[in-house]
Amino acid sequence: MTQYPTGLGTSDRDSISLLGLDLAEDLMGKVSFGELAFWLATKQRPTPQQVRVFEAVLVSLADHGFTPTAIAARLTYYSAPESLQGAIAAGLLGGGSRFLGVTEDTGRYLNSVVVTLGDTGDWGDADWDTVALEALTQARDAKAKVPGLGHPVHKEGDPRTPVMIAIAEAEGLRGPHLRLFEAIGRVHEGVLGKKLPLNGAGVAGAALADLGLPIDLLRGFALLARTAGLIGHLAEERVTPIGPDVYYSVDRNAVYVPPTKA
Questions:
Q1: For position 144, which CATH number holds?
Q2: Is the pLDDT of residue 177 over 80?
Q3: Band of residue 126 on the pLDDT scale cut at 50, 70, 90
Q4: 170, 131, 142, 183: which is closest to 52 by C-alpha?
Q5: In total, how many domains does the chain have?
Q6: Residue 38: CB partners within 8 Å, gap ≥ 6?
Q7: Most buried of the four, 6, 43, 205, 249, by CB within 10 Å?
């Protein structure tokens, strides 16, 4: 018989097992959802310090106002109010290189540098600045974008960034990814020719990478956080909808421009 192994969950007539424990007796009311999400992804129970950093990341990414993801969810809900899951999915599908996906992109970029460095335990800011300068110069010469730099709203500084760094520092989890990201913040202007803030999605990616979470899953955690924000938007849409006005505004102001003939 073909077998399909899993180390996550199973159930029988009388019980549900999750991560080797009894769901009802050992987990419900005893672990937070953030702790469980981390545990499910790694199959290792996180420390309280890891939980605090991880949940701070989730909170930082839950909502950022009328972003395209939120607007997409609201418009889909207006179009198909019977499909809450469709509205949430519509919002999540917009998590890409400009919104939400920056978390994974930044973590991946930083990790590609960190894995080449060896032991950095005794490094100071000057060492990290040297590495950051080299990485930025390579990106500039390759005309590649450096993820995590800049924000469409927070031009002078993302308020989430220093708080996230401080939390990681307090919990002893300010590791090489965050330190490299901070160094990029210090030296990038001299390489790129303009001053840009380190954005919250980027610092979230750095913090998640320092937690040892799989780089390929980082976008999943951003989507997990944003799901809560989208539920909030849809709850608000039920009471004070903006979807109809957005639709009517675009529809009534659309200008038809006949295609030009080649």
A1: 1.10.230.10
A2: yes
A3: very high
A4: 170
A5: 1
A6: 46, 50, 51, 54, 211, 213
A7: 205
Domain assignment present for residue 84? The answer is: no
Domain limits for position 162: 24-65+97-223
Instruction: Outline where DSSP puts E strands in 28-185.
Output: none
Dist CA 178 CA 207 (whole Å): 6
The pTM score is 0.93
Supply the Cα-derived Rg of the chain in whole angstroms: 22
- Residue 147 falls within a domain, yes or no? yes
Cα–Cα distance for residue pair 74/66, rounded to 1 Å: 10
Residue with tokens 């790694």: 42
Q: Is residue 59 part of a domain?
A: yes
CA 72 – CA 58 distance, rounded (Å): 21
- pLDDT at residue 150 in the model: 87
Contact indicator for 181, 30 with CB cutoff of 8 Å: no
Closest among 95, 63, 206 to 146, alpha carbons compared? 206
Contacts of 133 by beta carbon, 8 Å cutoff, 6+ apart: 187, 190, 191
Q: Per the domain annotation, does 200 fall within a domain?
A: yes
Dihedrals phi, psi of 239, to nearest 5 degrees:
-100, -45
Q: Tell me the one-letter amino acid at 151.
A: H
- Furthest CA-CA distance within the chain: 70
Closest by Cα among 84, 59, 63, 61 to 74: 84
